[in-house]
């Protein structure tokens, strides 16, 4: 059987596959089973931050796989402790909890916010304010925290305790932040919502309200974190520091990992047996994360910012492009003249470049190591498709 035949026969049809059968990759170039190359502006939806099969990352992961593949969290392991140390030193946070995905990280942050409020105020202060157009995951609770009605179907009853306000409307947020609220959950750039950045002034004012009312600011940096926007955390560019920050995607460089970072206020919130994850802190995943952390120094992040501006300028100059949003190497392209992102992306796949969509936009999340030559090569494919549209 071919790969496509096996997929059709044995895998639950929860994904609309693109017509590419991935075989191997290096850097920002993916090669399919037939030997055709593609410049990849998706990086596994922001996961392969060092690209495919980075030499240093491969060596780190292989060394760890040959040493200790897994051990229960009932025991200590060096890779988990070392990665937590690197994250705290990089972000100024105090503690880390490891899981396996962004959804798990967001679930952990929700639990932590409610536990903090219970410890300080007792029952009845458990509501989370989330933003409309947000996306926080696909578990029942993180879907409940997601502010897009399209996701609130089929799986009723959803988890209670979430209210939604329009992004940018500070008065609405203030009104919603009553005595029942323990946390406000935000993405600084709404990725699945269409690569929509929040306004810096709004974020800072929202953080101020949280401080005044002892409501925790929860930063979902699953997609924006780990250097994606040109700083290790996107919140650095918004001038705030969240009480709880969630990471995943690029943190493992290609392996499943999620993390909740606890600020000073929340560092001791979760105690013995109050949260857990069998695979959380897996040594191999943490070895990949350690390599990522060592690589994302200030010089690397400066290059991400420079390449982001370079790519943004190239995209803005293309035909039918009405606007480009985002920061660093997390960009969204708005098309005009009746063109649809899905059709344009499909045409690019046929010509050797991979892009994503986010609502009506083309979404770009290339490996952070993508070269300018690879940017030029992929942008040329997009330009050709747009000229012929």
Low-confidence stretches: none
Strand line-up of the largest beta sheet:
4-12-11-10-7-5-6
Helicity level, as a percent range? 25-40%
Give a short account of the largest sheet.
7 strands, mixed
| Average of per-residue pLDDT values | 97
Number of strands: 17
- Termini separation comes to 36 Å
Strand content: 15-25%
Count of helices?
13
SSE series: HEEEHHHEHEHEHEEEHEHEEHHEEHEEEH
Instruction: Give me the Rg, rounded.
Output: 21 Å
Structural class: alpha/beta
How would you describe the shape?
globular
Keywords:
389 residues; alpha/beta; four-stranded mixed beta sheet; globular
Structure description:
The protein is α/β, with parallel strands linked by helices. It has 13 helices and 17 strands. The strands form 4 sheets. It has a 7-stranded mixed β-sheet, with helices on both faces. Helix 11 packs parallel to helix 13. The two termini are 36 Å apart.
Quick recap of the structure?
With 389 residues, the protein is of the alpha/beta class. The chain has helices at 3-10, 43-46, 55-65, 78-91, 102-121, 140-144, 170-176, 200-213, 235-238, 283-295, 298-316, 341-351, 372-388; strands spanning 22-26, 29-32, 37-40, 95-99, 127-131, 162-165, 181-186, 189-190, 196-197, 216-220, 244-247, 258-262, 321-327, 330-335, 353-354, 356-358, 361-364. The strands form four sheets. Strands 4-12-11-10-7-5-6 form a seven-stranded mixed β-sheet, sandwiched between helices. It has a four-stranded mixed β-sheet with strand order 1-2-3-15. Strands 13-14-17-16 form a four-stranded antiparallel β-sheet.
């Amino acid at each position: 059987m071919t790969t496509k035949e096996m997929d059709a026969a044995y895998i639950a049809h929860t994904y609309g596959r693109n017509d590419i059968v991935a075989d191997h990759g290096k850097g920002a170039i993916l090669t399919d089973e037939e030997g055709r190359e593609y410049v990849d502006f998706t990086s596994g939806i922001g996961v392969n931050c060092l690209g495919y099969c980075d030499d240093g990352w491969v060596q780190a992961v292989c060394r760890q796989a040959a040493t200790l593949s897994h051990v229960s969290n009932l025991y200590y392991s060096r890779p988990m402790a070392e990665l937590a140390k690197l994250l705290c030193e990089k972000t100024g946070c105090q503690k880390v909890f490891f899981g396996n995905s962004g959804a798990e990280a967001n679930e952990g942050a929700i639990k932590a916010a409610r536990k903090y409020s219970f410890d300080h105020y007792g029952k009845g202060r458990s509501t989370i304010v989330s933003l409309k157009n947000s996306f926080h995951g696909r578990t029942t609770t993180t879907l409940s925290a997601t502010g897009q009605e399209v996701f609130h179907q089929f799986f009723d009853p959803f988890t209670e305790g979430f209210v939604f306000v329009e992004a940018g409307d500070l008065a609405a947020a203030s009104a919603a932040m009553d005595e029942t609220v323990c946390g406000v959950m935000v993405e600084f750039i709404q990725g699945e919502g269409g690569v929509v950045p929040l306004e810096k002034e709004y974020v800072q004012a929202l953080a101020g309200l949280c401080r005044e009312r002892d409501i925790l600011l929860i930063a979902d940096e699953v997609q924006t974190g780990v250097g994606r926007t040109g700083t290790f955390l996107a919140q650095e560019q918004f001038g705030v520091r969240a009480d709880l920050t969630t990471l995943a995607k690029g943190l493992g460089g290609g392996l499943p990992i999620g993390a909740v970072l606890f600020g000073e206020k929340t560092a001791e919130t979760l105690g013995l047996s109050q949260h857990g994850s069998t695979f959380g802190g897996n040594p191999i995943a943490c070895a990949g994360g350690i390599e990522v952390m060592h690589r994302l120094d200030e010089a690397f992040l400066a290059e991400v910012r420079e390449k982001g501006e370079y790519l943004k300028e190239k995209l803005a100059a293309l035909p039918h492009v009405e606007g480009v949003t985002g920061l660093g190497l997390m960009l969204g392209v708005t098309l005009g003249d009746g063109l649809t992102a899905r059709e344009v992306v499909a045409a690019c796949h046929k010509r050797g470049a991979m892009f994503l969509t986010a609502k009506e936009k083309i979404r770009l999340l290339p490996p952070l190591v993508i070269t300018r030559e690879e940017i030029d090569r992929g942008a040329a494919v997009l330009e050709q498709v747009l000229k012929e549209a």
